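Example 477, ligand uracil.
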Amino acid sequence: MSALRNPVHETRYVVNMPEAGDFDFWREQARGLVQAGVPPERVAWAEPGGDGDLFARGEGAPAPLSAAPPVRANKRFVALAKNAILHSDPERFALLYRLLWRLQRSPRIMEDKADPEIRRIEELDKNVRRDSHKMHAFVRFRLVEDDGEGGEHYVAWFEPEHHILRANAGFFVRRFANMKWAILTPAGSLHWDGEVLSEGPPAQRSDAPGGDPMEDLWRGYYASIFNPARLKIGAMLKEMPKKYWKNMPETVLIPGLVAGAQRRESDMVAAGTLEMGERPETLAAIGAAIHACRQCPIGLLGNHAVMGEGPQDAVLMIVGEQPGDQEDLAGRPFVGPAGQLLDRHLERAGIDRGTAYVTNAVKHFKYTLRGKRRLHQSPTAKEIDICRWWVESERALVQPKLVLAMGASAARVMLGKTVSISRARGVPIALEDGSELWVTAHPSYLLRLEGAAREEQARLFDADLDAVKARLEELSA
Ligand code: URA
């Protein structure tokens, strides 16, 4: 910080922000200024490398007033400010300081929805969150065959509107933990080598590669999920503004798909088969495509899509509800507490999990945030019905002879309607392709019970698994 003395006016302070979205630095400076009683009109906030450098000479930070009270900032302000500071509006630092200044005198100001400055900080927050959502949805990695160490390396080019790159690094590390990748932007870059994340300099579009085989996958996926019945061009442009199109391989298809949409829709209506499109031809294609699935809103929660796993020629397919917190982080089904309980019961029944194809009715983790904890939320019937297309695509490729559906969501995804577990369990239900469905309780249900009730449910669960094991032996005899 520097101070500029002017004989006519009072001292004016200039804060040179070292980085565009550095909340901690802004907070430290703002606190010092509030404690020194410097009103907003005497502070200028300068972007890194901006004209603030003209004033970067002077007396340094002001001294706190004697007996200055502690600086007040409520949780709502801090939450909004942390996001709003990432906005590209050069006025944001000053706006935040004005609000912080006002908060000292009017602690309830954040509740005033009509206040133009509150409305503005909320708008900045919303724009930044929207930009992050777009980044999650529209970053497209392209394969660079040789990364100099003989491995595969993926590079994506993205042009965020705001200073959101660093704030979203964790999302991409979690989602693409096993890949080596870089995200290049005009304001800086992120590099993940599978273990360490580092930041790099700004880049240009020409630093990122052009096309690669992944693009065919994206295009295939996009064509397959394109549902003419949902075509609303205005809404589509709002969700996927044209500025992102040039970096997304699938968008070359859009004009053609739009042109053909009306015809396809009337064909589908006539055939009574309004659906998502051609099924992916491999499990790997499903695994890649579900990441981008936005047919329902669960995939927008900043979570992984978790693909089923197991041999493609498995005789047994086990279906759960949806990935939980740990599955979302690991990117694998049934690895958390419910998975561990399932493993113990399968082992007791003599069913080798490694020979089964294990998947979920819904591919993304649906949760609600409580503090920092992500609490499981059950998917709605509609969400299950939308995800049914993926489970059916998996089943069409694996072709199991026996499907074990654990819990009501799994039963619904298999049958297309809700059934009572207590009534459906214990007897096989014939499926249209000649395979059979067995329904049982979900292991998480057992985990929620205690004492005698848990023992009773564990006994029923074991009995169901024993029946499945016996049937598997008959089928392989
Ligand atoms: N519960 C499920 O239904 N599936 C998982 O993968 C984990 C917990």
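Summary: Residues 320-324, 327, 333-334, 336, 338-339, 360, 444 surround uracil (CB under 6 Å).
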